[in-house]
Amino acid sequence: MNQRRSSLGKDLVGLELLTAEQILTILNTAEPFKEISERRIKKVPVLRGKTIVNLFFEASTRTRVSFEFAEKRLSADTVNISSSGSSVVKGETLVDTARNLEAMRIDMVVMRHGSSGAAKFLAERIPSSVINAGDGNHEHPTQALLDMLTIRDHFAKIEGLKVCLVGDILHSRVARSNIYGLLALGAEVAVCGPKTLLPLGITELGVTVFSRIEEAIQWADVLNILRLQLERMEGGFLPSLREYNQVWGVSRTRLEQAPKDLLILHPGPMNRGVEIDSDVADGPHAMILQQVTNGVAVRMAVLYLLAGGAPDTAEAAKGGVEV
Asked: 146 with 286, same domain?
């Protein structure tokens, strides 16, 4: 597909194996793409002629729509396929579905799947670039990248910052990608949540574990509050949502005890009144809507780089002829 070798390789299936330089390349490339979303005509022709398939085997709104906006703003041709509308419901395998798409001469696949490792599995079997939009409990790389871009926008750096991921770490692909990316860029990372929602051996990843939300608030510069993924829980993880909020919920009262103002992030969708109270989600230190805005720019950067775009020409690409 690519005439020029991508600085990221063929695919983006996770952040675990990316270098700090590669992660910074994505963040730096996203910067000039932010301006496109502020234009009257929000489009540049840098991916004109490329065909991208959005293959979503799990329900999604934010991620799918964000990728669609990114693709359209780069002038790519897009096809959206959900599991309910594909031959998968008739028994077709993932590889057969992808190979049939390949026969139509596509360039990239953006895929969300309920099985961990599905993106890597597909990437190893088709020549088109594969972007992981979330696979099981494994990784969600573009969400972590937009989180890091939001942090950098606020602090003008990532190295040396203290970032705590709060809540359902066990089921969170966002948490894993954030841990890999933040540690690569020199941040200190901690996790905080009930023991039933912390993976075994989590400290082996190089993170600190806090047993109380109050301790995390005293330590952190950034709280990234994760959604309780109730759809992935079979029972026994929590006594009740009310008790979770009382013990682990991030409230204004708790934040008022912090020694400094904390940056508040949430990947969404939010369970208001459970992991985060509304007066925090809508408060002055929450960057939740900025995360959504940055998500489009980050995904534009990933698409551009995987298509062979050079990082040092992103500014010129941004200024291309509007269509």
From this structure: yes
Residues 191 and 59 in one domain: no
Note whether residue 40 is domain-resident: yes
Same domain, 134 and 36: yes
Sheet holding 208-210, edge to edge: 208-210, 188-192, 162-166, 222-225, 263-265
Peptide bond into 269 cis (omega under 30): yes
User: What is the per-residue pLDDT for 239?
Assistant: 73
Q: CA-CA distance, 128 to 109, in Å (whole number)?
A: 7
Annotated active-site positions, please? 62-63, 90, 112, 140
Q: What pTM, to 2 d.p., does this model score?
A: 0.92
Q: Residue 176 burial (CB < 10 Å; 0-12/13-18/19+)? A: buried
User: Which residues, given as ranges, of the chain have pLDDT below 50?
Assistant: 1-3, 90, 321-323
Q: Give the per-residue pLDDT at 3.
A: 45
> Does 189 share its domain with 128?
no
**96: Cβ–Cβ under 8 A, 6 or more apart, which residues?**
87
**Distance of alpha carbon 84 from the chain centroid:** 24
Q: 112 pairs with which residues across the strands? A: 56
